[in-house]
Amino acid sequence: MKRHSHMAMLSAAILLAPAFSTVSAQDSEEPKFKFTPTGRILADGAVYAPDGDGFADGVAIPDVRIGAKVSYGKWSGKIDIGYGFGKLSMKDVFIQYGFNPENYVKVGYFVHQFGLNAATSSSMKPSMEVSSCDTYFNATGRNLGIQYVHDKDAFFAGVSVMAGTSISTPASDYGKVSVGATTRLVWRPYHEEGRVVQVGMSGWYQSAMHKKLTDDEGNPYVSPGFFDFSCQFPTRVSKVNMLGANVSDAKGLVKLSPEILLSKDRFALEGQYYYMNVDRKDGLHSYSAQGAYGLLRALICGDSSYAYSHGDAGLAKPGGKTLECVLGYSYTNGYDSKSQIFGGISNDYSVTLNYYLNKYITCRLRYSYTNVWGSDVMHKRHENIIQARIMFKF
């Protein structure tokens, strides 16, 4: 009997083994919650010539950030809080769901896909500072909204619906909320390490901004539609306004931006053109502005070629112990005599050296020559700027 009993138990174990194996496999495939702290510190120093008239040589810590990334299965999220010059501000705050590796949807407060500049954060720009035209056109500012991204093979597409409100201001303070939509469409027949050919087009429509005001008798009312555009000289140690325009009686705006990205081994070329038109009420002439930037990049030592970043549709950050040289040019024309709105015109020429010590530390040294004229917020002038930065990012 004992022999038959042992045989029966052995037979049952053999029969049940696949079932236990399946349960174990299912347990191992159970999603795991992952928490990753994030942060960055920027330390800048700058010298100006001529100094004075708003500029002062010095040092600053313009940006300190602390946050976290979380993930659970197909769900992920991020929260990022920034501190600079005595002010706290919310940066990225979003939830993301990935249907598969090629498609995802994101909801929250973040930089939406619009042009090649959306591929990198402000502190990761190879030219050290965001191009003046990108800043003036509010092309890569954060907005509340929802975004869908398709990223597969030769095609990349991002589509967003947004609300033109601040994360720190309730909609009731606006009286009437601005709404808009953006899209970025990219074709990249070659996008592997050492060889990238990419062209794209981005579009943006947004209804006018409004404010909730109070008349002399204390009655609330909603202001006429408007848009504000502005840009400072490309430095964070001294903050000096360079371009600025207030467009009143606005109905809505349209932005268009073609882009190009070429890379071969150690060399890369990227550029973007911006066109904007703001339609206005009561027969007022619309306001038009345009701009462009271009970067010629070269790896001097370290990495032998540029890599590609799929999720951003742009070049990846070079590897450790790599020295890069970047020649840059940015042009912004916000001067429109037909509408009698004089936002100003500027040119910015720059040379930047980037040393990527490792994945956490980057050192930058930049020289730029910037001139401006025809601006309502700044007289005709030029500025030579030499600045250096050490960035710690994790």
Provide structural commentary.
There is one protein chain. The protein has 394 residues and is mainly β. It has helices at residues 2-28, 132-136; strands at 33-49, 58-72, 75-84, 87-100, 103-111, 142-152, 155-163, 179-192, 195-207, 212-214, 220-222, 226-232, 241-248, 250-264, 267-280, 287-301, 308-309, 314-315, 322-336, 341-356, 361-373, 381-393. 8% of the residues lie in helices and 60% in strands. The longest helix has 27 residues, at 2-28. The protein starts with a helix and ends with a strand. 32% of the residues are buried.
- Number of helix segments? 2
The spatial strand order of the largest sheet comes to 1-2-3-4-5-6-7-8-9-14-15-16-19-20-21-22
**Structure classification:** mainly beta
Strand content: over 45%
Distance from first to last alpha carbon:
67 Å
Molecular shape: globular
Tags for this model:
single chain; 394 residues; mainly beta; 16-stranded antiparallel β-barrel; two-stranded antiparallel ribbon; 22 strands; globular; disordered N terminus
SSE blueprint and pairings:
Layout: H1 2-28, E1 33-49, E2 58-72, E3 75-84, E4 87-100, E5 103-111, H2 132-136, E6 142-152, E7 155-163, E8 179-192, E9 195-207, E10 212-214, E11 220-222, E12 226-232, E13 241-248, E14 250-264, E15 267-280, E16 287-301, E17 308-309, E18 314-315, E19 322-336, E20 341-356, E21 361-373, E22 381-393
Antiparallel strand pairs: 1-2, 1-22, 2-3, 3-4, 4-5, 5-6, 6-7, 7-8, 8-9, 9-14, 10-11, 12-13, 14-15, 15-16, 16-19, 17-18, 19-20, 20-21, 21-22
